[in-house]
Write a structure and sequence with these properties.
Blueprint lengths: L1 H19 L10 H16 L3 H27 L6 H22 L2 H15 L15
């Protein structure tokens, strides 16, 4: 009887742990969804003209589609690319995004974007994600 009870408890615990894991159904957002997120942040922060927002939407959507295509090319080789290659590719597209935003935003607006808005858009790790505190 004890064995059955322990087996039952172990299976319940395993089920709870399995369902509690975040990110099991992760799916990357489309270029349009990513551009729409930036559109919403810029619109709420700066109340830009519709024509400026439309330019940003179009340029970012094209950029994100190119980025997705490039990432597919990199991963199509079958081998996992090295970290430096991936960092260089991401930097190239981040720099291109910055140039798009610099062309439309004022210097002050771009500064606010870089200091306050952009950092808030980075994905947060579950549980805080920072280094563990070493104090007693």
């Amino acid at each position: 009887m004890k064995k059955i009870f322990l087996l039952l408890m172990a299976s319940v615990a395993l089920s709870v742990i399995t369902y509690a894991q975040p990110g099991g159904g992760f799916q990357r957002r489309t270029p349009e969804e990513r551009a729409a997120t930036i559109h919403a942040k810029l619109d709420s922060a700066f109340k830009l003209e519709a024509s400026k927002l439309a330019m940003i939407d179009t340029a970012l959507t094209v950029l994100y589609k190119k980025q997705d295509q490039r990432m597919q090319e990199i991963f199509a080789g079958g081998e996992r690319p090295d970290r430096e290659t991936m960092m260089a590719e991401r930097k190239k597209y981040t720099d291109a995004q910055d140039e798009i935003l610099k062309a439309v935003l004022t210097e002050e607006q771009y500064g606010i974007w870089k200091e306050k808005i952009e950092p808030s858009m980075r994905p947060q790790r579950p549980g805080g994600g920072g280094p563990p505190s070493g104090g007693n």
